[in-house]
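Hey, quick one: can you model this chain's 3D structure?
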Amino acid sequence: MSLQARALVTSKLLAEAVKVQGKMRILDTSWYLPKLRRNAKSEFKKRHIPGAAFFDIGQCCDKTSPLDHMLPSQKIFSDYVGNLGISSDTHVVVYDASEFGAFSAPRVWWMFRVFGHSAVTLLNGGLRNWELEGRPVSDKYVRPAPTEFKASLNRSWIKSYEDILDNLDTKKFQVVDARPAGRFRGLDPEPRDNTEPGHIPGSISLPFHSFLSPSGHFLPKEQLQALFARAGVDLSRPLCVSCGSAVTACHVALAAHECGHPGVSVYDGGWSEWYTRAAPEHVISEGRGKHL
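Sure thing. Here's the predicted structure for all 292 residues.
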């Protein structure tokens, strides 16, 4: 069964596709904020979808950057993915074990796409729903044979601090922030030390969990379109997404993709970088100075 054209796949369809044994690789892409004290790799070793490999966004990144899990170079991504047994004609399915149903998996979905690999699909509902539906998990892992993967970075889908700063005047693209509303407004603390909450001037708040149903599945296309419309996001215009460190921002990217947007860019530095580098007048907050 081909999943090639899908951004999202149900547990049922994935279970059927696994039986066909096509050129497909399943990746557990779980990652958690340090304050949650969850070790994603240790959890993977105890339970994962049979045949899955572990994709670590804390390792497949630019380790020279002071910021968390910034995009790696083409070579680093190619080598890392190739060592997971993924070649340029492998269909990749990503999921995570978050209680949300999706937390870090959309980031890896976007990473494959920004590196030129469109044959990537997200398991809708994640491991949470895979298990709720009674599907098998395993603690067995067989290291795949390394292969060659050729990445080709689409730089137009990445925005830098300078791009965001310039956009304050030019307004060439919309900026959507996926953090919870309290952090966006500056009323709730950030999860990282030495960072106050707030937002980029002119940005729009659309918390990542807004795109998910209570069951942890992405909302249907019509509801996603309505969500963007209510927030004042014009899906016919260029769109850049942001969050704390460009992980949950990718929920917005995936949702916009489902609605037909040709290509959402991501501010990779996110609020972690903006708060550190921006002038005080470019940090908009209702509760400035209360959280440090």
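One thing worth noting: The chain has two domains: 8-153, 156-282.
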